[in-house]
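Tokens as discussed.
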């Protein structure tokens, strides 16, 4: 039993390559493990032996989190997306390749109500309330789902091949992704 959560009701846990995330019922995010690249969201690259609340998200009610290999993503109750950690492969969606030591809002998704996210190794995937899918990050081998355009995406870009499909769940892997539609079909792309 993780004693740090003795007074907390944990509603979700995620495991990245070297770090863990937990979401508590009050909408707080906790992180622990390897802190390299700032993937814990505490403003530094220090390791954390015990779960520590991500104070930079205080005042935000987080409803979902995802742990990638070296980055993390959260959705707040208003449908905003926040990301932090390793940014070299463009997987944070902030328009650059900088690491983020603290959670930063993905401004390119402003106006979209995001309901689900998945952080892979070098890319990220999000679903909006209307079932559209956006991807960003490293594009080689088609892992972003944009057909012949296999370039890196610094900002979230809608997957046009899924237009007309109502996607309800996504999962980002190492170099591929999966999507589940409301009619029970599974779509895949990448390698």
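Sequence:
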């Amino acid at each position: 039993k993780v004693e740090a959560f003795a007074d907390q009701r944990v509603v979700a846990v995620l495991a990245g390559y070297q770090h863990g995330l937990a979401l508590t019922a009050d909408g707080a995010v906790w992180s622990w493990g390897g802190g390299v690249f700032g993937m814990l969201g505490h403003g530094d690259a220090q390791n954390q032996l015990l779960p520590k609340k991500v104070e930079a998200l205080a005042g935000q009610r987080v409803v979902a989190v995802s742990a990638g290999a070296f980055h993390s993503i959260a959705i707040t109750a208003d449908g905003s997306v926040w990301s932090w950690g390793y940014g070299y492969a463009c997987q944070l969606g902030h328009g650059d390749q900088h690491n983020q030591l603290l959670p930063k809002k993905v401004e390119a998704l402003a106006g979209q109500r995001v309901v689900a996210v998945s952080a892979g190794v070098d890319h990220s995937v999000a679903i909006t309330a209307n079932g559209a899918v956006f991807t960003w990050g490293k594009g080689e081998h088609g892992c972003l789902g944009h057909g012949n355009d296999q370039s890196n995406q610094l900002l979230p870009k809608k997957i046009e091949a899924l237009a007309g499909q109502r996607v309800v769940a996504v999962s980002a892997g190492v170099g591929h992704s999966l999507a589940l539609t409301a009619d029970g079909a599974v779509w895949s792309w990448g390698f």
